[in-house]
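Appendix B, record 7
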Amino acid sequence: MDGNGRWAKKRGLPRTAGHKAGATTFRKISRYCSDIGIRYLTLYAFSTENWNRPPEEVNTLMRYFREYLQEALRDFRDDTIILRFIGDISAFPEDIQALMKENQELSSVRDGMVLNLAMNYGGRAEIVHAAKLIGQRIARGELSPSEIDDKLISDHLYTAGQPDPDFIIRPSGEHRTSNFLLWQSAYAEYYIDDVLWPDYTEKDLKRALLEYSKRNRRFGGV
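Structure tokens (predicted):
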């Protein structure tokens, strides 16, 4: 969900205004994805590097996270969306951690779209975390190094039990992965869109999905 700061700058507004507009787009697009039958949606909400931003901006993002999580508990009890968080959530304030856990528990019995929110997430950090878990199991004698394969690593990632992403959309015109789902995206199709995230609409998503439908996915084959 990229381009919030540039969106605000173009309008002579503080970066925090861009994040507020981006939060509205997040609600709209995630709801639309659920309505059209997408089964898994992962949105990059806050990276491991985002802590390096100005304190005012980080505090504003924390406020928006609280508002969304409180809203989800209050207004979406009868929703079908399953809410999960991927990343090291232990770095967040305790009240936000509690809201995350409560939302996960309440939504776990639903049968709709799985919405992964990547929070304090980094692809490299995720792989390191998986390697440590596997190393601990080897140290306990539960595994031998010869048993390490692709599936074992996938089973120790934050997304364990979920399919790898088919399609990754990068708004705002940037041409880089930005440390997002590095292991899982090995054969994902990428789509770069120049639209800044706060301006992103259902129409933009439809255009991207139409483009995806024309791709020929060979997964390294012919």
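Remarks on this record: The two ends are 33 Å apart (CA to CA). The first helix runs from residue 4 to 10.
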